[in-house]
Write a structure and sequence with these properties.
The protein is an alpha+beta fold and 89 residues long. Helix content is 16%, strand content 36%. Strands 1, 2, 3, 4, 5 and 6 form a 6-stranded antiparallel beta sheet that branches.
């Protein structure tokens, strides 16, 4: 049986204990929809990860607005809801 490594790579460790919220974004024009994950840290820096590429960082920004613009420009749409660190503690 083949095992799949689902752990995040080193890039994700940079925000491991400092993340504020995460969102899921989809490209609804594909079937099944393509997913990207947006992770924002406590300082407002954002990283967008591609789960299909081993959680590789595909975009980084110093603000949520810039990350959101990048996703919207590529016709991604947010999945309703946001997971905040405060909801988990």
């Amino acid at each position: 049986m083949q095992k799949t490594d689902t752990t995040l790579r080193l890039e994700a460790d940079l925000v491991k204990n400092n993340w504020e919220f995460t969102e899921v974004w989809i490209d609804p024009n594909l079937s099944p929809p393509y997913l990207l994950l947006l992770l924002s840290d406590a300082e407002g820096n954002c990283r967008i990860y591609d789960p299909a590429e081993g959680y590789k960082v595909v975009f980084s920004s110093e603000s949520y607005d810039e990350a959101q613009y990048w996703l919207l420009e590529d016709e991604y749409e947010p999945v309703e809801g946001r997971l905040s660190v405060s909801e988990l503690v």
